[in-house]
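Practice problem: predict the structure.
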Amino acid sequence: MYPEQKLTDLTGKVAVITGGSRGMGREMAGAFARCGADVVIASRKLDACEAAAAEVAEETGRRVEAVECHVGRWDHCDRLFEATYERMGRCDVLVNNAGMSPLYDKLSNVTEELFDKVLAVNLRGPFRLSALFGERMAAEDGGSIINVSSTAAINNSANETAYGAAKAGLNSMTRAFAEAYAPKVRVNVIMPGPFATDIAKAWTEETKDSIRELAPLARIGLPDEVVGAALYLASDASSYTTGAVIKIDGGIN
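Answer:
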């Protein structure tokens, strides 16, 4: 094996992915396992986690665990941390991928409950998980934390105001965690633009056409196109990268 091939070899590593049962999270779970990692797939729906875990395990032969976790709930974040170390004994890569951006007709109809829920899932949960896993990683063999943000963090709109604000907070928080747990833990951001995940099912054809017109690459991203950046940040290929934001948006922003 050439040195370059070893860069994305995750053999012996354990990766935890929130929102890992579908979309970009599911693609990352499969890619990490194919590169040799054992994986913990976490999301709100245990049956979806178990189905995804079974698929990845069958495809790759790796150990894949399913854990129910609503990242907007502090106690669920604690349970995911505890379950990971009880079952796997370690964590080398944490991917804070779970997120939500609910629809609303106008800003004045965004309720306090909805606003709090958006911030809880997109910002508070990643804070708690990064604090727990990051501290343990720093005390042991080190590791990598990958936060999945959004280009809404830098180019917000009326349709995703609270979501964009939460993702901007996630970008800011990433730099703070990179400093807090250095030098053994690297903390970085993947910042996707429009991707054809479940959230895209609510897009009108007009919205899709507008995205294609705005993007120099003239199309919407596919979930597996996040894998290259994720492998880079999860592996030794990014050994001198921390506090960074990698934008993947077809050139829109």
